[in-house]
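The data are passed on as follows:
___
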Amino acid sequence: MPLSPPIHSSNHATPEPTSTPPPDVLEPADQVPPPIPSLVSTTSPRTLRIGTRASALALAQVSIFIALLAPIHPTLPTHTVPISVAGDRDKITDLHTLAQTGKSLWTEELEVLLLKGEIDCIVHSLKDVPTKVVQGCEVKVVGERGERRDCVVFPRRSTQESMPETVTGEERSISQAGEEGSTTTAAAAAASNGEPTPKKRKISSPSTPSTPPPPRRLSDLPPNSVVGTSSIRRSAMIRRRYPHLRIQDVRGNVGTRLRKLDDPALGFDCLILAGAGIQRLGLGERVSEWLDPFADGGGGGGDGGEKEEGKGMMLHAVGQGAIGLEIRERDEWVNGLLEGREGGGGVVFNRVSWECLAERSLLRTLEGGCSVPVGVSCSWEEENSEENHAPSTQQRPTPTIDATDTTPNVEAPSTSHLPPTSSSPTQPPLPTAPSSFLTSPGHLHILASVTSVDGTSSVSASLKKYISNDKEADDAGWEVAGLLIERGAGKILENINLNRAMIERGNGA
């Protein structure tokens, strides 16, 4: 198994406080990446070897992880080991088809190195990590959770073109030349007569009196507009909320997808991407719209009396926005690095870990992944009441598949943890939460949905539960999965060939 770029080590004594993406984030993933900021020690004999994918986004996330460690272990040396994984090498096959191979598209090759002791940890986008990791490994969530929402990106040409699409490039050049010539002549005549210089006229097609403004939101797109995404979850939710739009698969790293979007020959009208990746690559100015869980235009009453938010929900992927760190089980040295010095804070925060544990438990119980359209949204509610603070004593029954597609009564969770929706092309990073908020117990509100691939049906369920430890978080996700199945998710799961036996066993989740 070849290693893509060579191993990188750094000779910087102190890393930058925040991650800095490579200079050209639009270069292909197989290009030799620049060195990653790292920490060097003249006293520590051991180096932390960090495995990662070779894409620009993956390397930016390594920089974030190293920056998290810097205040705790300022003299820790690191090496970064980037490799090309199966999901990066096959840029043609859609993810739904690749997922049927049973292989971990983004993790398998790295896990081999981890178990062989050639690296000490792997930095992942948590949403790409299977809920059942290979035996001998475990997953931690490090740092604060970044932007968890999806975003809409339009082609650069849609904001640069000022002429109607009916005018060809040649016609545009000729018209512009004619306009400039006539304006110059008129200007000379005006100057000779002491009159003001006339302004240039805007060129427009005879058949099109005025050019409409370019679209800035999904709701602005006309019928049959092409939306690019490689996610079956995003495809299903877009089909449900905007049935007049067309979905087209688009593969590649973020830079590759943006180049495809900006190429008019490929015909994409917009892309749906994970907001965290766009922000971590310093491309926030490309964002035109943030897809909030309960944005306006939810699609009306829906089928069977479904609430408006049930029709229009745009929930994010499990673990989206979080950085996962995969390590060997019971690796005391790496765990010690994550926990920090005695009396000091570490890089693993309880609330971030608990909400991700709940989401991954939900997905694991449903046997979901790239091939199942499962969306989630979590928020924490600050309450002083002691009500429901006692841990649940409910025994886990075996979930059964209910083929009846019943309509859930879904209460929208608080979105106070999210930045305000903005119509501007940029979105500021999430504010830094106080450490007490990140570490203290509290009530976690979980909303989840399962949507059919064609978008014609969807079921939702929500749960609010007091969480103070890992088991309670894991149980909460399992309970939401059971609610989804009771309310009709079983019919959807059967139609997308879910492993029914795993659901019936409960998977020990």
Remarks:
- The first helix runs from residue 56 to 69.
- The mean pLDDT is 73.
- The two ends are 33 Å apart (CA to CA).
- The first strand starts at residue 8 and ends at 9.
